[in-house]
Design a protein that fits this description.
46% of the residues lie in helices and 17% in strands. The protein is α/β, with parallel strands linked by helices. It folds into 3 domains: 1-61; 65-181 and 304-337, Rossmann fold (3-Layer(aba) Sandwich), CATH 3.40.50.2300; 185-288, Response regulator (Rossmann fold). A 6-stranded parallel beta sheet has the order 2-1-3-4-5-11, sandwiched between helices. A 4-stranded parallel beta sheet has the order 7-6-8-9, with helices on both faces. Strands 10-12-13 form a 3-stranded mixed beta sheet. Helix 8 links the parallel strand 4 (151-157) and strand 5 (175-180). It contains 16 helices and 13 strands.
Length: 362
């Protein structure tokens, strides 16, 4: 706790100094601009985020109420729905900044992994009561940096898929919140042969997957077998950074695919507009297992409602704050999944979606 300005400014100085190894950083920021110009951009971004965050937290903190952290790995309108659900559940549970019953430290790493790690470490120094994480990149960063602070995950796969279980198959003891497995993608993928007519003798479905994300690779392996069982060919290419998505997706489209399946991973989420643009230009419909991506242009999906995903995690976090204990708690599976379709996208490709799919609001 940092109840007064002098202590808070001392903490600010020490935190920045420890993070970057500068002496009297705040003074040098003003008088040694030439040296600062030589820093790499991520370091400058991280410094700005931490300094601004520390000043804001010091000025706005309510005393005698819990302080929590929330970490987003990158900007994404779809994933933002989970945070909104999380905060709404906390509010309904009696914890909100508006009601002055909660202090929130929110940070977004803007897709930069070193920044993400430093944000989590900053949360630890602030001794937050809990940290909410979305999506899996944030969850993994939190797991790697704290064994004590309860982590309430959302928009994340199961501990097994994230490969964070111990040798006995146990999840980290401080991991809570809500996760998802891959069984639901079967329903979404199996919809494609029902709705898309192949140009040739065999239906060809394109897929991009991230080799550095275990759940993305697992999804690829699962879909490869499923495609074979459905008599379709899965045309897959690895892509590990958003910068490469347009090039690799273009190459994939040149292989004569009939449809594209948006794999559930962070690279796809953060570059989905790029994928939609090239697929629409090529006349290739996009399907997905993420309901939130349908609002961004995919034809249809069966998958978790991201707002409800975050809300479910928030209900659990509110219970923890009320009882100040995790006794009897464990991470949960997603409870609310939806069948949804995008009327505009369906009309573009002349696709008639089954009656049990609900049109999204546009």
């Amino acid at each position: 706790m940092y109840p007064n300005g002098s202590v808070c400014h001392t903490f600010l100085h020490n935190s920045v100094q420890n993070t970057f190894g500068f002496s009297s950083v705040l003074t040098k920021m003003a008088i040694k601009t030439r040296r600062m110009k030589n820093l790499k951009k991520p370091s400058l971004l991280l410094l700005a985020v931490l300094v601004l965050g520390l000043l804001t937290a010091c000025n706005n903190k309510q005393e005698g109420v819990p302080t929590i952290g929330f970490v987003d790995a990158f900007e994404d309108n779809t994933i933002d729905q989970a945070r909104a659900g999380f905060m709404d559940a906390l509010k309904e549970g009696g914890f909100s900044e508006e009601g002055q019953t909660l202090n929130l430290i929110y940070r977004n790493a803007q897709g930069d992994i070193p920044t993400l790690t430093q944000i989590v470490r900053y949360m630890i120094t602030r001794e937050v009561a809990l940290v909410g994480t979305s999506p899996s990149l944030s969850t993994i960063a939190a797991i790697q940096n704290t064994k004590d602070i309860p982590i309430f995950m959302m928009v994340s796969p199961t501990p097994a898929l994230m490969e964070v279980e111990d040798a006995q198959g146990n999840a980290p003891a401080n991991l809570f919140g809500v996760a998802e497995n891959l069984s639901y993608i079967d329903t979404s993928f199996a919809l494609i042969p029902r709705l898309v007519q192949p140009k040739g003798e065999q239906l060809r479905v394109g897929l991009l997957y991230n080799q550095s994300e275990p759940q993305s690779v697992e999804a690829y392996e699962r879909l490869k077998g499923l495609a074979s069982n459905l008599g379709a060919a899965l045309v897959a290419r690895p892509v590990n950074t958003t910068a490469d998505v347009q090039l690799v997706a273009g190459a994939l489209l040149n292989e004569g695919i009939d449809a594209f399946f948006a794999n559930p991973d962070n690279t796809i989420f953060s570059s989905f507009e790029t994928i939609m643009k090239v697929c629409n230009e090529a006349g290739v419909p996009v399907f997905t297992s993420e309901a939130g991506l349908v609002a961004r242009g995919a034809v249809a999906a069966y998958g978790a409602d991201l707002y409800q995903w975050g809300y479910q995690a928030g209900q659990q976090a509110a219970l923890f704050l009320k009882n100040n204990s995790t006794e009897g708690m464990q991470w949960e599976m997603v409870k609310v999944r939806k069948r949804v379709y995008n009327p505009g996208a369906a009309a573009r490709f002349g696709i008639e979606v089954p009656a049990n799919y609900e049109a999204i609001e546009q």
